[in-house]
Every structure is written in structure tokens, then in C-alpha cells.
Amino acid sequence: MYECPNCGGDLRFDIASQKLKCNHCESSFDPYEQEKQADAVESTDDEYQVTVFTCPECGAEIESTNLSAAGFCSYCGGAVVFSSRVQKEKRPAKIIPFRVTKEDCRKSYLSMIKRTPYTPKELRDPKYLERFVGFYLPYWSFRSKTEREVHFDGVKRTRRGDYIYVDHYHLSGKLDASYDGVSYDASSSFDDGISQRIAPFSTKNMVDFAPSFLLGFYADTADVPVEIYQNEAYTTIAKDIVRRLLSSQGFQEGGIKVESSATAQIRNEIAGDISSERMMFPIWFLTYRKGDRIAYSVVNGSTGTIYSDLPIDSGRFFRASLLFAIPIFLLLNLILSLSAQKILIFSMLLAVFTIFLYAMEIRAIHRKEKRKDDTGYQWKQKDEAKSAAAEPEDMQGKNMTEEYQRRSQAKNTERVPAKNTHFTEMLGAVFAVLLSALILFWNPVEDLFFYLGSVVSLLSIGITILGVIKKYNNFATRPVPDFFTKKGE
Questions:
Q1: Which DSSP string corresponds to 119-133?
Q2: Residue 432 · residue 460 · CB < 8 Å
Q3: Residue 484 lies in a domain
């Protein structure tokens, strides 16, 4: 679709020059001028043509205007052969072109990895870093321009002796507020938690969309409707307005404070002043896969902000811990003189803390596994469940057959989340608490029993700490995604 006018070679968007560049003759072209020539037939003011690639293993879909599919899926990390189809996509209004190069991306990633010494060595492999892929993510961006009279309630409290007098006021004023760039990712495949971590994107380089900006990159599909984020966007803007009203330059000057119900009142006032547009924002995407778990590293393509799932290598952790703990133990043994009973009490307290840490990890894992905080994903699951329930029986049977055929072509990979809610490893710390309590209650005369109890307790705690590391690694990684079936939960 996009060929060099001079030699017919492939064109790519060059980040350094912010122009289209030919891979063969290195000629440069303006993205908008090239679109006029290349897209006269294949796109309109409302649509443009893309090739959609579907991963046969996890069902993820990505788009491209000129690239063939990569040899691996960025979402599940599997080495696959993509199926493809050509379709029309609705044009976004704006796009933020890439500003961060792949080399900048690698440097930022390596700088972050140096500060995390317990990560697996595979994450530092230069060959692994070559798998960073440039993506454009679809976003819904909300803006608000309000110039109107607003009305809300306020109170003023005055103390007189033993009494507090509360005066209620109905406040009104001229509100002049402008908000732009309140954005939410429009892809159910991409985790909302990650998009929030790498936000915000630099909107100063935002330009009108043209398909030529996508040359050399992939794009995620936009499948979450704008209505899903409207309430959240309205509330976010209203809360910020109320926060400013509560500041020293607002209605606080006369001792009047805005009541908590003002957020809902302001939200209703400004709802008609808020509009939305679909936009494309750039990211660099890297996937690490081990067994049935994956880890993502994502770099904001406009600011360089990085987020990464970082598992721990238990071998590295314990080797470093021993090297650190042995000299500290010897030093403390020279300085302090602890009784056998106090050592056992310390072991019991350490076991209690380990149990608490273990339980917190399991709770955090559960929310992440189920993507409880991912608004777009949760909507997609409910929508898929409603659609499945509304289908006639013959259509359901047909869809089940099609899905079975797709799955039978995929590699035999387990996509069930890891069993993260098992408490087996925590029994070590529980045993340490019970043993310590029993010996302290018994209170034997000989110190040997206290020392033996401490040693056994610490070994039991070590088992639980291994469990904590295992649970942390499950928290720091994700189950291999399955976008073929999104059943409501």
C-alpha cells in the first residue's frame, strides 16, 4: 500500500526525523503527502485499510498497514503462525507519533534491570531485548470546556463555647474550567493497570491521524466502546474541580467549605460539556514467557516511562541473602548477648510476620489474575457472556465447533491461571508459631530446647519464605491470556 515513489521500496516511519523513510534508497517523505498519494483508493475520511493478524494460540488480534506478522505473539509469547484478514478500520482523530527509539527503550530497560539484582538472567539477554515491538494503543480521550454558572452546597462551622453552629449555604459562581487528555485505553486485551502505570503520554506532539504514521509498527484493536469510560471520566474531572474549589483560593476563604455531595452536583452540571475522541498512543512492548506464566515490559513511546513485571530468581535471592546475613549475624553475636528465650520469641514474631506477608501476596495475586481493576476487560467478559446467552442453540453449537477447530490447531499450552490460592507453604510458618508457643508455655530449664526450637522454627520459616517468593513470582507475572473465550464471572 505504501511504496517509495523513487524506487518502489518499503516505507517506514523514522522516529528520528519524524518522516517516512525508504528502507532501500533512504529517501524521506512527509507522512501526510504520502497518504494523499497512497490512500486515494484504499481509505476514506472515516476509514482506512489494515491487515488484522490473529494469534492461533491465545486469540489476541493486532493490526498493521504494511508489516507481515512477527514470528511470535506479543501477548502470549508463543512462537506461532498468525492467520490474517484485511478489513476497514475507523480512523482515530489524533495520534502521538513515536519519540522514543528502540535503542532508547533498551537502554531504559537495562538501567531498570540493574536496580533489580534478583531477576532471572534471561531478562538481561541482548537477544531477548531484540524482541521489543512497537505498538500503537487505541485510547478514548475526554476533554471538557466549561464556562457556566454552577450551583452547589456549602457549610460553615463556628464554635461558640461548648456549641458548634453549622450554617448551610447555597453557593453559585462562574466556573471557567478546561480539561484535555483524560484518557483510557480502548483495548480489552491490554491491561488497564499497565496503561495507568505508563501514563501520561506527552500530548504536545499530538498530530492529526494519518495511516502512514503506523508504517513499521503494529496497532492494537479498539473493542471497548466509549460509554464504558464515560462515568469514570466525568467523575475524574468533577473531583478535580471540587478539589480546586476546596483550595485556599476557592470558597474556603470565608470559612465556607464545599460539602462532599458537590462532586455529584458538579458532575451533573458539566456532563453536557464533555466530549470524546479516539486516539492512538505509542508503546514499546516486550514479553517474557516461562511455562504457563508470562511477564510484560512496556515503555511509553512518547515519554520513556517504563513498567515491567519482574519475577525473582530464588537461587539468586538466597545466595545474596546468605552473603548478607552471615556477617550481620557474626557482628550482632559479638555486640549483643541474647538469651535463648528471646531468640525463640524473635523466631515466633518473624513467623507471624511471614504468615501476614504470605496472605497479602495471595490477595494481591487474586485481584491481578482476575483483572478485577481492569474496566475494559471486565466489560468485555460481561459483554461476551451476554452475547453467548442470547445466541440460538444452533449458533452456539456452530461457535463451539469453530472454537474447537481453532484450539486444535494451536499448540497444546495450558492457559489456566496458576493455583495461587494454595496455603501449603504457609504451614511452615504456622508450625513455627505453634512450636515456639508450646516451648515458651513449657518453659524448660535447659536452654537447649529453646535453641532447638529456634532452629526448627527458622527452617520452617525458610520453607514459607520460599512459598512467598513463589507467590510473588505469580504476582509479578500473569497467566497466558486466552482471548478466544471471555466468560462472565
A1: S-GGGG-HHHHTT-E
A2: yes
A3: no
Query: What are the pLDDT digits (tens) for 439-484?
Result: 989 988 888 898 898 888 888 888 887 887 887 887 788 888 877 6
Answer yes or no: is 3 within a domain.
Answer: no
| Residue whose entry in the numeric block shows the C-alpha cell 520460599 | 466
Residues 433, 394 within the same domain: yes
Q: Which domain holds residue 350?
A: 314-479
φ, ψ at 311 (rounded to 5°) = -70, 165
Domain-terminating residue out of 33, 60, 95: 95
The three-class DSSP label of residue 488 is: coil
pLDDT digits (tens, 9 = 90+) for 18-29: 999 998 899 999
pLDDT tens per residue across span 26-80: 999 999 887 766 555 555 668 888 999 998 888 888 898 877 766 788 888 888 7
Query: What letter does residue 482 receive in the DSSP assignment?
Result: -
CA separation for the pair 461, 354 (Å, rounded): 7
337 and 401 part of one domain: yes
Any alpha helices (H) in 125-215, and if so which ranges? 126-129, 192-198
Spatial distance between the Cα atoms of 167 and 357, rounded to a whole number of angstroms: 48
- Catalogue the E-assigned strands of 6-132: 11-14, 19-22, 28-29, 47-54, 61-64, 83-90, 94-95
Confidence check: pLDDT of 261 > 80: no
> DSSP letters along 417-447, please?
PP-TT--GGGHHHHHHHHHHHHHHHH--SSH
In a domain, 4, yes or no: no
Our count of domains for the chain comes to 3
Q: Are residue 414 and residue 473 in the same domain, yes or no?
A: yes
Which of 75, 95, 115 is the endpoint of a domain?
Answer: 95
**What are the CA-CA distances from residue 231 to residues 236, 276, 311, 332, 372 (Å)?**
9, 12, 35, 57, 18
Beta strands in 24-69 (DSSP E): 28-29, 47-54, 61-64
Instruction: For residue 487, tell me if it sits in a domain.
Output: no
Residue among 274, 277, 294 nearest 285 (CA): 294
HEC profile of 314-354: HHHHHHHHHHHHHHHHHHHHHHCCCCHHHHHHHHHHHHHHH
CA dihedral 401, 404, 410, 412 (to 10 degrees): -170
